[in-house]
Amino acid sequence: MVKLKLDNQTVRIDAGELVGYELDGYEIIHQKGSPGWRNSDTEMFPIIGPTADAGFMVQTPRDLAVQDQHGLLRELKYELVDSSDTHAEFHKTYKERTPVVNSKFPEKSTRQYLFYTYSFNFVKKYRLLPEGLEITFTIAGERDTPFMLGYHPAFKIYTKDATVEANGKTITLNDIISVGSRALQVPNCTEIVLSDQKAVRIETEGFDNFMLWTEVENMLCIEPITFYPYAVEQKNLHEGFQFLKDKDELFKVLITPID
Disulfide check for 256: which of 45, 47, 68, 201 has CB 3.0–4.6 Å away? Predict the structure, then answer.
C-alpha cells in the first residue's frame, strides 16, 4: 500500500489502484466491499467496450486481437518505480502477441487468454497538489499503434440527491441508473462536477468525453474516455481507435474537492 499526504489530503494506492482519497476525513472514492463494484478504479485499454458479441475479437491494422471487455491492460500488474510523500509512479509493459490470462474465464468469458497485436508501455502517475489529486497516463509504443483509453474511477455517493453537472445540464443518479450497463454518454466534455455532501470537480485533458455508470445509489463511476463504445456495433469497435504518433501520448485527470 502506498500512501500520499499533503496538508489535509490523504491518498491510498494499492498495486496502482486508487483505493482512497480523503479530504479532512471525507472519503471521495468508492470503497471495495461496498455494493456496486468490486474495484475502485481501473483503466480501459487498448479498447473500450464489450467484445462478447464479436467473439472477443477486435480488428487491428495488423490482425485480429483477442480482447475481453475494456481490453487487457487490467490483467497486467503494475510495477511501482518511484514514490514520495506526494507522488507515485507505476508502469505496465506488454510485448505484442504475448498471451495474458483472462480473469473472467470461464465464468464470464469463453476466452482463457487474451493478446494484442502491438507492444506498449503504460505509465500511471499520481501527484498530490494543493488543489487536488492529479492522475496522468502516458502511452508509449511504435508509431501508428492503435488504441482507445478510458479511466474508470468510482466515487463514493452519500445521498440519493447527488447530481452531476456537465455541459450546463444536471444529471441525476436515476438518470444514470436508467441507462443500465451501456453507461450514459456525456460527449464533448472535459469537466464534470459531482455534487453530494461535498462537491468534487473532475477535469481532463486528452479524453474529451465521459460516460457515467452505476447500478446502485452508493457509488458512481465517472469515466473519462477517448471513445464512446456503444456508438458502434461490437464488431466495429476498431472505428474508435486513435493512433500513436512520433511522441508519447499524455492524458490527464484532476480531481478537485470543492469546499
Answer: 201
